[in-house]
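Model it.
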Amino acid sequence: MRYKHDCPECRPLGEYGDADLYFCKNNNLFVARYGDKGRDYQSGFQFADKIPHLREAKKRAIEFGYLPKEPDKAA
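Modeled.
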């Protein structure tokens, strides 16, 4: 992980492009951190399907077992 992130509830999910990805267990949020300053991030749960970095964080949070696997929508 490249950038400072001081939330003890956040679980690192690795790097993706120019961001460090996290899942915050306390707030049920996905976080993409782009720098060390407090404002250098995007976060949200509801934006995960619209913002590529948060979509990847959601995918990884499911893979790591922090969230349940989503049901298949093909049926």
